[in-house]
Amino acid sequence: MNISDINLDNFKVVIFDFDNTLALHQDRNFFETREKSADHFYNYFLNAYKYPHIFFEKIEPCVRSEELYNLTLELRKKGIKMFVLSGMRSSFAIKAKQDFVSYHYGPDIEVFGVANQSLKVEGVILISKLVNCNINEILFIDDREDTIKTLKEANIPAFHFTGK
User: Fold this and answer.
1) What pTM, to 2 d.p., does this model score?
2) CATH numeric code, 3-23+64-160
3) Phi-psi bin for 131: left (phi > 0), alpha (psi -120 to 50), beta?
4) How do beta strands 81-87 and 158-160 pair?
5) Pairwise CA distance, residues 100 & 105, whole Å
């Protein structure tokens, strides 16, 4: 199933994952690169915090997904709210993620973080309370199959994104 095949009529909210969903990392092994040493790890997050406007452009280069960018345009036309819910080892990178999303997708998409992928269910529940809707009125788009499975087990509509 393609993302364009999704019937959006029943959704009030779409939540996107960040890494390798909205932000397509040029270094596909960026997690491993970041973890090579303590210096790599600390520099990664310090640079994300100190240079949020350029972090995902110059330090950890990412590009936007044109397919998802076009989807965000359609969602705005339909009045569907959008959020990002990212599994984050450290909140030091949240400003850099917000800057990337605001620049490439629009300033109306707020970025939230959870400590790990399994907490995305709780994040969806919190967002449903924030916007006053049911979880079945929220669509989650993520690149990770394990996260999609967890969301679906919690009866949250989810789409496995594998495109560019």
Assistant:
1) 0.94
2) 3.40.50.1000
3) alpha
4) unpaired
5) 8
